Amino acid sequence: MTSEPATVDTPLKKLVGEKTAKALAGHLDLHTAGDLIYHFPRRYDERGEHTDIRSLDVGEQVTVLAQVQRTAVRPMRQRRGNLLEVTVGDGSGGVLTLTFFGNQAWRERELRPGRWGLFAGKVTEFRGKRQLNGPEYVLLGEGGDGEAAANEEVEEFAGALIPVYPAAAAVPTWVIARCVRVVLDTFTPPEDPLPAALRASRNLVGIGAALREIHRPSSKEELYRARRRLKWDEAFAVQLTLVQRKHRAAAWPAQARPARAGGLLDAFDARLPYELTPGQQVVGREIAADLATAHPMHRLLQGEVGSGKTVVALRAMLQVVDAGGQAALLAPTEVLAAQHHRGMLDLLGPLAQAGELGAADDATRVELVTGSLGAAARRRALAEVAEGRAGIVLGTHALLYEGVDFHDLGLVVVDEQHRFGVEQRDALRAKADQPPHVLVMTATPIPRTVAMTVYGDLEVSTLSELPQGRSPIASHVVPAAEKPAFLDRAWRRLREEVAAGHQAYVVCPRIGEGPQSDEEAPREDDSGRRPPLAVTEVAPLLAEGPLHGLRIGVLHGRLPADEKDAVMRSFAAGELDVLVATTVVEVGVNVPNATVMIVLDADRFGVSQLHQLRGRVGRGSAAGLCLLVTEAAEGSSARERLDAVASTTDGFKLAELDLEQRREGDVLGATQSGRRSHLRLLSLLRDTDLIRDARAEAIALVEEDPELARHPALAASVAALVDEERAEYLEKG
């Protein structure tokens, strides 16, 4: 260990010793003084303020601040020795049992009633009581033994506010606190990256003070000021990255694709069997204006399930074809790509029949390119694309492969953009001679701050109203464990809809045996619950049981492509009553006659996913019904999530709920890159005003110094907080 001044780059082994440094690196990916100093506390505890033990979820790894209430020693039943049970409370009436196996009488002397401590472990439940088995702990105050020395460090280190860090079983929070204390004693903060004028105008403390106060807060007010400053660093880094990208993209050249009077688009509008909604008309004009410029469009089109995004995208594609170019739509699944193909052929009619009898004068061709095409069909389709006869090309990842060449690619439409990585979008863009226009679509509504932060280099258009003829969807939670009769009633309700001439979906979180697929929920979790229900297991049980006599089909991603297509065609044609499927039906599947969806193990799905799934019903004139079947207990967070989904069809409210329940870093691509999120403090939900202000400052700074040449410390900070991999993720096409 060293007494030399520590900088952000100093290896931890020089400061805290090799053994501790190895544990920090192996369990928490912390290697340098900077890594540790930027490993901020998750929360702060105060003695006398409860941590709400009652809200702890079984299976959760927790650290709680609590007071010992009583201890009891009793013989173990199955083996020799005694069991020590310690009851601790948090001041709110919530209690937790700590269990220690074996003869540990010394712990009884140590864990005396009245002592406060930090207790860390995994929450389990036994006979209705929450407990921690053999938890790690550190006691606060009193005593003169080695443990007390450690807690003196904690108390001196933290004063009244005790930091609780993101920790690991092998590296509890008090070990991290001790290491931070050692590092801070010799730490030299980096040069402040924020320009002095910005710090003054926004009343932000310096970086050195912020880093010290966030770990060793002298008061709640100083802690607030430290957190606000460090949130600014994060928000400003992201916004600078996005504003810089937008600034650079605006200078790229692109082929203008202006609208042409009397062309395909006008002919299509004339044959549409319904009027566009006012929202579709407004968004259509925005996109048409973008396409007519000599710089590439970068626009995000978001809209509720069933709001008519596909028609808006098709009109944009026709404008590009009218201007002599080609348009490609990238879909996440073959089922969705095939459905887009059928739907566009139906909408276009003779306008999509170039070279055939009865085709319109200006007709083009619409080609489908997927991995399951036979060799002859693939050669024919690729020739149509390469020679420019196919103005509209639809496909899956197969569009990205070598050998798929375009005559003049002018527009790329990415459907359900969250299913694709940056590399895939770039691969399609690279097939154009110069940057094409890009339209990315999502049916997952995006809260305002997420749109500003994740999609900050895109123009955003929103479709909020549903086209005429769409029916309301009623949603209900079916508590199968508490009230089995409710599940019986759900199956009877499905049969009633089929008897009335309608169709139904039954959705399961898993396919069945075999390797894990992207469309499946995790099969096991730490709480020891049973595996999620599987399509291949549920379908025969339904056929023999509650749905006996109905025509049942099965659909999942492991089926051969032609079989998937055949099943979807049969269902769309009304030849099947019930489709038992995975989330392969989550997006784009359009069968107006389907009125009921029963989602089994609904608590295994995310909020946005459930909203997407339920959008598959109520697409015709008859009302839709979505039943969310769960064994989650009343009052649990999983049940509350389902109750929220059932209570509203407002996708934007649900998107905010979804954001609350996810780690915020995931929204910014931490999971995409497989790395730890660099956004540790910023909340996209709670820091709306701060993010908006940071964006305004970023726009002003980039206008006067586009590459941050006059702000080298800031440029380095941005590079550290938003590394190149994450910056590419943020680019979004």
UniProtKB/TrEMBL annotation:
InterPro entries: DEAD/DEAH_box_helicase_dom, Helicase_ATP-bd, Helicase_C-like, NA-bd_OB-fold, P-loop_NTPase, RecG/Mfd, RecG_dom3_C, RecG_wedge. Keywords: ATP-binding, DNA damage, DNA repair, DNA-binding, Helicase, Hydrolase, Nucleotide-binding. GO terms for molecular function: ATP binding; DNA binding; DNA helicase activity; hydrolase activity. It comes from the Bacteria. GO terms for biological process: DNA repair. Pfam families: DEAD, Helicase_C, RecG_dom3_C, RecG_wedge. This is Probable DNA 3'-5' helicase RecG.
